[in-house]
Design a protein that fits this description.
Blueprint (H helix, E strand, L loop, with lengths): L2 H8 L7 E4 L11 E9 L10 E3 L6 E7 L7
Parallel strand pairs: 1-4
Antiparallel strand pairs: 2-3, 2-4
Length: about 70
Amino acid sequence: MTVKELIHKLNTLPSELQVITEGYENGFDLIKTVERINVVENVNKDWWDGEFIESNTDNVEEMVYLNTKRKAKK
């Protein structure tokens, strides 16, 4: 995804949303999609886990997910 494409997609979203992406391990990947997802804090995380997990429960926070499509969604 180019900067132009990313800016275009981000301009369609509410500007107050937090932006998240995949974490952990080495190297870099291209962003494939920009998605709005609901997350909650990952309170039982180990050091290698991300701060948030996707959730459809109460008290979710909507965030913008820059998805590289390298990891399967759970």
